[in-house]
Amino acid sequence: MPGSRKISDQLTGIQARRALDEARLAGGLKIQPQEKEGEPAAEPTLISHLRVNREEARLEVRVQGSEEQMTFLARWKLFVLFIKYRNQHHESNPLEVIKLLPEKEAMTLHLQLPKYFSKVFYREFFRVYLDARLTILFRWQGAGMTLSGRLLDLSAGGCQVAMPFQLALNLVRPLPEWMQITLEFPNEEILRLEAELSYLKPDETFTQALVGWHFMPADSEQERKLFHYTLEAERELARLKHPGRSNLHASRLFRPAPKKEVKPAGKRLHPAFALVPKSYASQLQEIADQLAGQVLLLAARKPLDSAHMGKLARQFIHLLEEDTSACLLALEQPHRNIHRVFLHTFRVAARCFPLIFKVGITRRYELPAMVSLLLHDLGKLFLGHQPCFNPLKEPQPVLRQLKINQIQLLRSASELRWIPKDLGESLMVNANERLDGSGYPRGLTATRLDALSRLMGVVKVLDCLVHGYNDPVRSWQEAYQWVYKHDHWFDKNSLNTFVTHHGLRPVGSYLHYKTGKTALVSRVSDRGQLEEVVLINKQDAEGRILDGRLLSGGELQALGSPVNEKARLEFNPLKSS
């Protein structure tokens, strides 16, 4: 489009073919005539029908319009094809006209097949880049959540928003094409309007997500407001850059509203009992944030960052081996700031990692093994928040999308060439397979599943059973019994390996004693022997321990043998917020 500024990134080869096929089915494609110098000759025209003829290496494009419009288009020998793929606009390389079939109010063009598509974000309006002194907040409410961020730039046509990586994960799953967003200014003036997500990616420093939005004003009044806000932002920015100029007056929009008096809470919250050092929670959140950044690379169809993934794996291994029981206990606690898919992934990685060396993996491969464990479930983030579900029970569109995501994950992981193929296949591809062939994604039977694949399947299903998710929460004893009874799906030898190392009452188990007291298992030996518990004196409604006492040695023995184990009370962040 004339006078527009664009930021590009290319899709080639298989990606270009896939993008064209998906965009053709979605519709909304356009073509635009081009001058020989590469400049647009007119505004894009909507395509009424597109056929991809790969045998003859051509596109068959049909457009409709007035006789005058068709006559005008017939003059040009070069066209650019515009498509939308993965919530992002793309344009093809210039395509030569091979054949022209004119009609009275329609025309069919035979064009060359595109060699590549370039990612495009059109900026048709004057844009202001905001520095840290100008704060405009972004909010979107939908699907039971609120996403918020800070504007980095603003125009009447759209904006760029910065938000934390994990918050941005909510935008990688299927969403409506147009969403109701809110812009909030310091003086508390707000504007609600519809907008389209145009891109989602990590920033250059890999510290936050960048989200591009294209506005769709409801009427001319709303569009006028957007122009006004953009000009006011530029005026305020100019004033801040020249503090000595008295003729530059402060913008009303950026005058902070009076702070409202906050009434003190009527009831003081009881601090939680410190089960593990706070550093564990902060380190786990840091790993989750960086892993979320890798998901955004996947969403943008880019390869994973090898250096970042290696660093994350080393950090997690260090955290786990520094104090295994403390790390496991930290992962069993509620974490509002860690995505539930990541929490499931971390628990599986933490419990599976020490076991892989019991089934033939040497320490030489600990880094690629940990990277594979951290990556194995990322495809589920593109479907929602549920860590545990059977994909084969989902509708066909969901299953198809999960397969696409899994293929993309494996292609991206293949860029990490230091992960041996067999190791990555066992931990990433086969994690959801079952012995009788009823698993996912390939339906492999026992004869084609190695010990590592079988072990991974057992660890994953145990975590799903103990934490419930869609099903009733089970105790560890109940989970063990369930897996043992379903030996047509899961491997008994792998279950035995797990129990031998983690014990009949793993870290995180809740135990009942004859005295009526309840304790949380906080430490076991590397042979699964009970070493330490937290005697629970007081819990809140969400299951967090408010008052407790650590017992080990003689004090632990004095408690006697537990009479039974109870299922953990699953923490519900929505209920407690």
TrEMBL record:
<dbReference type="GO" id="GO:0035438">
    <property type="term" value="F:cyclic-di-GMP binding"/>
</dbReference>
<protein>
    <submittedName>
        <fullName>HD domain-containing protein</fullName>
    </submittedName>
</protein>
<dbReference type="Pfam" id="PF07238">
    <property type="entry name" value="PilZ"/>
</dbReference>
<dbReference type="InterPro" id="IPR003607">
    <property type="entry name" value="HD/PDEase_dom"/>
</dbReference>
<dbReference type="InterPro" id="IPR009875">
    <property type="entry name" value="PilZ_domain"/>
</dbReference>
<feature type="domain" description="PilZ">
    <location>
        <begin position="123"/>
        <end position="231"/>
    </location>
</feature>
<dbReference type="Pfam" id="PF13487">
    <property type="entry name" value="HD_5"/>
</dbReference>
